[in-house]
Amino acid sequence: MIVYGSSLSPYVRKVLAFAAEKGIEVESKPIALGEQDPAFREASPFGKMPGFRDGDFAISDSTAIVTYLEAVKPEPALIPAEPKARARTIWYDEFADTLLMGCGGKMFFNRVMAPRFLKREGDLAAADKAEREELPPFLDYLERVIPESGFLVEDRLTLADLSVASPFANFRHMGVTCDPARHPRLKAYVQAILARPSFKSWVDREAAFLARAA
């Protein structure tokens, strides 16, 4: 199985962490922004990361990929079977992919990707506005809903946690952290999930890569 795309993408990172938590061995093939690799474009016709291949089967979109991996190897179950728990898991996956990264993407692209890799100035005003106006309500929401167990659904690790935690690696790379006074539960939650082996090795490599690219 091959996962195409840079782990700097929270969507790629989510898939890599999901596969690791499932005990599924995948090959990570980094793809640079805008790269026209034929195998990647066959898996992802519109060039969106991640792309994925398993033999003659190819697909893109992180949620589609993890759904496939869950079906290929049902245990350990990271997408619950119980209807309400499954619905909540998919909600958190969508929340992270669309809402949290809709905000975080503006910040990361303009502060990191544009200046370091596209060699052009990012829209720092847009990034600052996203951090100042869009991000706080999302952090407040997560602070309210994270259970005492430290897992979002069924008091155990699920796709919900992998999806929600992944964007926070990008925030960390930008030096954006949770205020321990305003978001103590969220801060502890993010630290715990990103410290899992399924995430940590990727996040550490990304930090070293970004330091070299600075």
Which CATH architecture of the largest domain is right? Up-down Bundle
The CATH top-level class label of the largest domain:
Mainly Alpha
Main beta-sheet strand count, sense and barrel state: 4 strands, mixed
Kindly report the average pLDDT value.
96
How many structural domains?
A: 2
Chart the SSEs and their pairings.
Blueprint: E1 2-4, H1 10-22, E2 27-29, H2 38-43, E3 51-54, E4 57-60, H3 62-72, H4 83-117, H5 124-145, H6 159-173, H7 184-194, H8 197-213
Parallel strand pairs: 1-2
Antiparallel strand pairs: 1-3, 3-4
Quick summary of this structure?
This protein has helices at residues 10-22, 38-43, 62-72, 83-117, 124-145, 159-173, 184-194, 197-213, and strands spanning 2-4, 27-29, 51-54, 57-60.
Question: What brief labels describe this structure?
Answer:
214 residues; Glutaredoxin; four-stranded mixed beta sheet; alpha+beta; single chain; globular; 8 helices; Glutathione S-transferase Yfyf (Class Pi), Chain A, domain 2
Mind explaining what this structure looks like?
The protein is an alpha+beta fold. It is built from eight helices and four strands, in the order βαβαββαααααα. It folds into two domains: 2-72, Glutaredoxin; 83-213, Glutathione S-transferase Yfyf (Class Pi), Chain A, domain 2 (Up-down Bundle), CATH 1.20.1050.10. The chain has helices at 10-22, 38-43, 62-72, 83-117, 124-145, 159-173, 184-194, 197-213, and strands at residues 2-4, 27-29, 51-54, 57-60. Strand 1, helix 1 (10-22) and strand 2 (27-29) form a beta-alpha-beta unit. The model has no long low-confidence stretch (mean pLDDT 96).
